[in-house]
Structure formats: C-alpha cells, structure tokens
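User: quick one, fold this
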Amino acid sequence: MNDAPCIELQRVEAGYEQPVVGPLSFALGAGEIVALWGPNGCGKTTAMNAIGGSARVFSGTIRKRPGLRISHQQQNPLSLRDIPLSGRELLALTGGDAAALPSSLQPLLDRRLSELSGGQLQLLQVWACLTAPVDVALLDEPTNNVDAEGIALLEQVIDRERRRRAILLVSHDRRFVEALGARVVEVGAP
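Assistant:
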C-alpha cells in the first residue's frame, strides 16, 4: 500500500470570487477519517469544493496522489424534481453497491428520487458516494435530514468503508464525529 497521503493541503486559501477559507493545512491518509470542524460560514464546504475542483485555490497547494479517484456528496445537491431517476439508477450511475444496501433501504431502490423524503434521499446519496469505486469519499453534512436510526446506519457504513477508502467529512454533530473516531481539523476563515 502507498504510504503517501491521498490528499495534502498546504496553506490553502480558497473561495470563489475571493478567498473564504484558509490558510488551511492537513493531510488525509488511506483508511483515515478526517472531520473539518468550525462555525457556519468558516469555509468547510469551500475547502471540500476546492479539493473536488469546484472552488478556486487562490494560494497554497492541494496535492493528490496520482490516479486518485474521488466521490463527493454535496451538502446542497441539484434538485431532482424533474429528473426521472430511481435509487437503483443513481447507484448504477455512481458505481455504488446496490447489493449491499441495508434491508431498511432496499425499498428505496425502485422509487423515483423525487418521491423520497429528504432523509431517504440523503441516505441514498451518501451510500452512493461511500460505496462508489473511489479512494476518497468527501461527505458534506452527511447527517442532514437523517433520523437517529439513519445516523446509526451511517456510522456503521462509514466505519466499514474506511477500510477501503479515506473519508473527509464536514459535520456539526460532535457526537457523530466522535463516534467515528475522526481526526478533527479546525477550519477558520482567512
């Protein structure tokens, strides 16, 4: 196994029109869970977007291991109201593992995504991201709209999947972060 970090940020300042986060430095290794932590508006999501390529890096460096494959569950995904896609089709598109989906979520596979509750949709999107054939999963507020039973399920799945990939997440749920044994990186605005 390669000992080099999957992703390494060195004094990164990132944003859109101007920097909204940084300087931020940390590394994410294989099999590791890192949680970005800080108040609303400090740039946690922007840092993830910079890694994923949808936010601008104004200074500093983001290094990714060559050939690195990344999935990204975004906090505010596109609206699915007009997209006739089922849960099964979502998992097929992302390469997510439909066969291993817990029995409590199996009934969601043949329903249109637009018919699911916010929590059901969130669980399917996180599942798609976590079980896709990737090296790093980026999870932005994975527990949003998810009930206690769903959060317990996410904890189990993330714990299992960490053996196969690194996980970088944003969460305001301290109990969830601690239950995962995540290394916490404090994020502050520039």
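User: anything notable?
Assistant: The helical segments are 44-52, 87-94, 118-131, 148-161, 174-180.
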